């Protein structure tokens, strides 16, 4: 089943076209990870899926309707999104940040309900940020801050979540921590997740479906074991690498071959 | 039926319910305007009592509530009240306008006096005074309505220009402040040009108005302000529930289901209208819109300038500055004191924001 799909979209900024004639079905209840080299259009595609960018041609459809023609509040109750490096105003507490995730469920005369309270409480509990609820966002560590932002999108209570490079700037332990949380979201709430990741090994480990992009086109999509091959790494990333089974998860493990370690051709 | 209780997951917040409606609030956010309002009553009473025949503050309050004798009633309602009431209304309008501009621009420097809105209003008002001749060809109702209307139009035009010139696939607070400084420069140069070409009497009247002056305000100026605020303030407060989301970046705000351009554009125009109407009545009393939202924010300990607090503190600062000057240097208009206070604060903000950009 597919609720969210891109049909023949052409995307770009101003005159520049970044993505052209691209089709993508987001499988319901799965975790889709988009990978590709810098500038291949993966963040642009994610922005279009989250109706932050209107396609120049083609359409992004949510439940068969053009997403840019649906009321934006209605979309916000179905699709939650976390941009790359979001910024919070100075002095905002974690509890307030997460509460603002309830905006699409509220109106000017109804700014707090039992549903809001329950959603915020469970979002904070799920990310373990309940103990930090009273703290100010800009005083948190990088990992905590990212969990606070994810809590906000959780409070939005959507069945779909789009994450743009959610683990950039985090150390490895916090990267795993955030991705474990995303995976748990998917198992416990059945949330459909689409995210852009740079780390290929983590992408392979946490994705149900990998989408590999280059120059604004989808080069390969499918299970990580089928997509992440030595040939694809060479085609998509121009990367000379060995692919081994990951000793922990069994998913593909990419081991790059560096120039100075390459066997002498002579 | 209404009930107030603690909101579980949001520490320090309480929930107010009335039927299907519900709002959350923090005690401090409510306390700031309440305490401010109490102080405002005291300062206003002293300010009204001051004059060629002194009236005790308590007698002022009694008279305002309808219990004064004929002499006191006459003095207060006919002569004294407009000045203080104008201070309250104008200050509240500046405070609210400043709070909205600063939230939208995500920058404490963004206030109608920096962004060129008040100067836009100034061009409109001085234009009517000088070209139309405030006491000359245009008289009576035309003059009473002409100046505030021209100021309103001038402020709105400045607001539209500001939005159009600082929009580049979204609003960046810094770009908005820089564009605003440019608009201000254009605005006050037009004003000075109008003064040099104008009639001497008109120019003299316009000059006291340019500084920001409450002394000459009569009922004919209070009326339009009160009317405009009665319309603008409720509309602004209803529209303001998107402000929390707009404080994030554009993408996050859109993700939360806010129609960013419409909400921001609408609020910006409302804030520009508030500032323009206030400017029309008493001139550009600087510093009030710049400082009160930040003072209210620190007192209420919130991440967003509180609207009610900014309004009340704006009124308190304006009437307080007026009273202070009347006690110490009665010849000076109120705008002089607020400008003196505002200059060092503005330098402090610039220094502080430079540091943040580097960090």
Automatic annotation (TrEMBL), chain A:
One of its GO terms (biological process) is iron ion transport. Transmembrane segments: none annotated. Keywords: ATP-binding, Cell membrane, Ion transport, Iron, Iron transport, Membrane, Nucleotide-binding, Transport. InterPro entries: AAA+_ATPase, ABC_transporter-like_ATP-bd, ABC_transporter-like_CS, P-loop_NTPase, Siderophore_ABC-ATPase. One of its GO terms (molecular function) is ATP binding. Its main location: membrane. It is a peripheral membrane protein. Residues 4-240 form the ABC transporter domain. The keyword Cell membrane applies. GO terms for cellular component: plasma membrane. The keyword Cell membrane applies. It is found in: Cell membrane. It comes from the Bacteria. This is Iron complex transport system ATP-binding protein. It comes from Prauserella shujinwangii. The lineage of its organism: Bacteria, Bacillati, Actinomycetota, Actinomycetes, Pseudonocardiales.
From TrEMBL, chain B:
The keyword Transmembrane applies. GO terms for biological process: siderophore-iron import into cell. GO terms for cellular component: plasma membrane. It is a multi-pass membrane protein. Signal peptide: none annotated. Belongs to the binding-protein-dependent transport system permease family. FecCD subfamily. This is Iron complex transport system permease protein. The lineage of its organism: Bacteria, Bacillati, Actinomycetota, Actinomycetes, Pseudonocardiales.
């Amino acid at each position: 089943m597919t609720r969210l799909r891109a049909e023949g979209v052409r995307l770009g900024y101003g005159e520049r076209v970044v993505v052209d004639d691209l089709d993508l079905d987001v499988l319901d209840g799965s975790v889709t990870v988009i990978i590709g080299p810098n500038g291949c259009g993966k963040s642009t595609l994610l922005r279009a899926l989250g109706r932050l960018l209107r396609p120049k041609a083609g359409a992004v459809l949510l439940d068969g309707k053009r997403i840019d023609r649906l009321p934006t509040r209605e979309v916000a109750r179905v699709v939650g999104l976390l941009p790359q490096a979001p910024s919070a105003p100075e002095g905002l507490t974690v509890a307030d940040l997460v509460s603002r995730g309830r905006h699409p469920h509220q109106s000017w005369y109804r700014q707090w309900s039992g549903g809001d309270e329950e959603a915020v409480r469970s979002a904070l509990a799920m990310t373990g940020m309940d103990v930090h609820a009273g703290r100010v966002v800009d005083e948190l560590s990088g990992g905590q801050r990212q969990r606070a932002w994810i809590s906000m999108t959780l409070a939005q209570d959507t069945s779909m979540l789009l994450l743009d490079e959610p683990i950039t700037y985090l150390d490895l332990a916090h990267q795993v921590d955030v991705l474990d949380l995303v995976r748990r979201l998917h198992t416990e709430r059945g949330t459909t997740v689409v995210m852009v990741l740079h780390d290929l090994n983590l992408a392979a480990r946490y994705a149900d479906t990998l989408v590999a992009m280059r120059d604004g086109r989808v080069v390969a999509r499918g299970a990580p074991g089928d997509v992440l091959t030595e040939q694809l790494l060479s085609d998509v990333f121009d990367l000379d690498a060995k692919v081994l089974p990951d000793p922990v998860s069994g998913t593909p493990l990419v081991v790059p071959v560096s120039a100075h370690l390459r066997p002498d051709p002579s | 039926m209404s009930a107030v209780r603690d909101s579980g997951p949001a520490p320090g917040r309480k929930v107010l319910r009335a039927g299907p409606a519900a709002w959350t609030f923090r005690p401090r956010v409510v306390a700031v305007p309440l305490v401010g309002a109490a102080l405002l009553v005291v300062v206003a009473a002293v300010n009204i009592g001051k004059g060629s025949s002194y009236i005790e503050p308590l007698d002022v309050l009694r008279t305002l509530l309808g219990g004064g004798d004929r002499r006191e009633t006459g003095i207060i309602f006919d002569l004294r009240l407009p000045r203080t009431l104008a201070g309250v209304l104008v200050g509240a309008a500046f405070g609210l306008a400043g709070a909205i501009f600063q939230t939208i621009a995500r920058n404490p420097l963004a206030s109608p006096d920096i962004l060129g809105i008040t100067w836009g209003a100034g061009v409109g008002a001085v234009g009517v005074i000088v070209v139309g001749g405030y006491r000359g060809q245009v008289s009576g109702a035309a003059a009473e309505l002409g100046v505030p209307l021209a100021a309103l139009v001038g402020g709105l035009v400045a607001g539209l220009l500001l939005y159009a010139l600082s929009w580049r696939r979204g609003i960046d607070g810094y770009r908005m402040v820089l564009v605003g400084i440019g608009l201000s420069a254009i605005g006050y140069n037009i004003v000075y040009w109008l003064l040099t070409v104008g009639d001497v009497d008109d120019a003299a009247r316009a000059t006291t108005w340019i500084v920001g002056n409450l002394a000459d305000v009569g009922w004919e100026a209070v009326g339009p302000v009160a009317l405009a605020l009665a319309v603008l303030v409720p509309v602004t407060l209803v529209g303001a529930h998107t402000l929390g989301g707009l404080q994030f970046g554009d993408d996050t705000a859109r993700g939360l289901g806010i129609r960013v351009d419409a909400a921001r554009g609408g609020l910006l125009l409302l804030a520009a209208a508030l500032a323009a109407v206030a400017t029309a009545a008493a001139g550009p009393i600087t510093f009030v819109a710049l400082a009160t939202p930040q003072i209210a924010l620190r007192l209420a300990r919130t991440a967003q300038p509180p609207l009610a607090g900014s309004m009340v503190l704006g009124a308190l600062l304006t009437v307080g500055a007026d009273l202070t000057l009347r006690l110490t240097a009665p010849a000076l208009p109120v705008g002089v004191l607020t400008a003196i206070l505002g200059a060092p604060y503005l330098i402090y903000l610039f220094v502080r924001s430079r540091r943040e950009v580097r960090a």
